[in-house]
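Propose amino acids for all 239 sites.
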C-alpha cells in the first residue's frame, strides 16, 4: 500500500490532503527524514506531525461515553465523534460503535473497524452480557427481579418476550442489571413496565470486559490483546 493511501485510510485526510501534507514535510521517520509518496518505511517508524501513526486495522477502542452525546453521525446535535480525533470518523473502514448507547446513557462503549468483531458482539445469537448501573426515580419494591428473570416480560409494542435478565439491588433506588440482548432503550422500558422510571443509566461491562475506574468520562484508549480476548470468552458478566 502506498504511503498516501495508508494515511488516507487511517483518516489523516483525503488523498489530496495527504499529498499536500507530504509536500509540507509533515510526515517523517523516527530519524527526522521527511518522507515522500514513494517512501514506505515500517509502519511503526512513521510519524505524522511528530506523532506515531494510529495502528492499522483492525483497531478497537474502549470509550467512556458521557451523557449528552449520540452515537451516530446521522443523529442531530453532538455526537461521540466530536470527542474523538476527527480522523477516527474518516478511517476506512470507519470506527463504528459496537451497539449504541442513547444520548442520556453513559459508560462503556466499544468502537471498532473490525467487522467480524462488531457482528459477533451485536448479533442476538451471541447473547453477550451487558451490565448496567441504574438509578431509579422511586424505591425498588421487590417484584422487579422475578419479573425480569422470568423470560416472560413483553415490552410495550413488542410481541416477543425478553430473555431472562438478572437484577441485583444495591440500594433503595440503586440496582445493577445484566442483559444478554440489546433492544431499543431496553433497560428504561423494562423499569417502565415494572412501574418505575430510570433517572440515570451507565453501562459498566460488556462480557468480561469492565469499564476501568481510571478511564474518565470522555476518555478512550485502545484495547490491549488480553482485553480483546475477554470479549471472546463466554461469560455472564455477573458483578
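Proposal:
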Amino acid at each position: 500500500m502506498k504511503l498516501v493511501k495508508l494515511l488516507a485510510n487511517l483518516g489523516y485526510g483525503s488523498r489530496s490532503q495527504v499529498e499536500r501534507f507530504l509536500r509540507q514535510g509533515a510526515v517523517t521517520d523516527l530519524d527526522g527524514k521527511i518522507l515522500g509518496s514513494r517512501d514506505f518505511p515500517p509502519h511503526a517508524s512513521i510519524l505524522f506531525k511528530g506523532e506515531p501513526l494510529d495502528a492499522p486495522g483492525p483497531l478497537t477502542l474502549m470509550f467512556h461515553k458521557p451523557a449528552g452525546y449520540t452515537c451516530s453521525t446521522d443523529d442531530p446535535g453532538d455526537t461521540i465523534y466530536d470527542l474523538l480525533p476527527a480522523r477516527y470518523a474518516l478511517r476506512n473502514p470507519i470506527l463504528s460503535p459496537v451497539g449504541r448507547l442513547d444520548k442520556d446513557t453513559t459508560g462503556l462503549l466499544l468502537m471498532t473497524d473490525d467487522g467480524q468483531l462488531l457482528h459477533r458482539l451485536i448479533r442476538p445469537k451471541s447473547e453477550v452480557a451487558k451490565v448496567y448501573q441504574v438509578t431509579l426515580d422511586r424505591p425498588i419494591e421487590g417484584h422487579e427481579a422475578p419479573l425480569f428473570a422470568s423470560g416472560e416480560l413483553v415490552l410495550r409494542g413488542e410481541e416477543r418476550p425478553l430473555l431472562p435478565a438478572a437484577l441485583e439491588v444495591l440500594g433503595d433506588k440503586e440496582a445493577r442489571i445484566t442483559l444478554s440482548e440489546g433492544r431499543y432503550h431496553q433497560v428504561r422500558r423494562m423499569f417502565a413496565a415494572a412501574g418505575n422510571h430510570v433517572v440515570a443509566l451507565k453501562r459498566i461491562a460488556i462480557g468480561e470486559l469492565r469499564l476501568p475506574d481510571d478511564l474518565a468520562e470522555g476518555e478512550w484508549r485502545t484495547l490491549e490483546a488480553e482485553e480483546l480476548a475477554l470479549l471472546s470468552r463466554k461469560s455472564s458478566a455477573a458483578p
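The two ends are 45 Å apart (CA to CA). The chain has seven helices and twelve strands.
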